[in-house]
Amino acid sequence: MTTPVIQPKWHTTAEVAAMLKFSLSKTKMLVLTGEIRSVKVGRNRRILPEWVDEYVARVTSGTGAVSA
Q1: pLDDT per residue over 8-31, tens digit each?
Q2: Nearest 5°: phi and psi at 11?
Q3: Residues 6+ apart with CB under 8 A from 22
Q4: b/e map of 10-23 (b: 16 or more CB within 10 Å)?
């Protein structure tokens, strides 16, 4: 019997910074400007994995525009 691996449902800003190889301050700025979507849970900011993928896709497509 194998032990199931639990995948993270969301990431902290620091985790996203590490994934993207950005500084924490740059990642926080991207979150504050809405370029990377996030949700506030209590005092914490969380980012869904899909939102990181959306940001990467938008940046690599060359549009760079933030969609609402």
Answers
A1: 799 999 999 999 999 999 999 999
A2: -125, 155
A3: 16, 30
A4: bbbbebbbeebeee
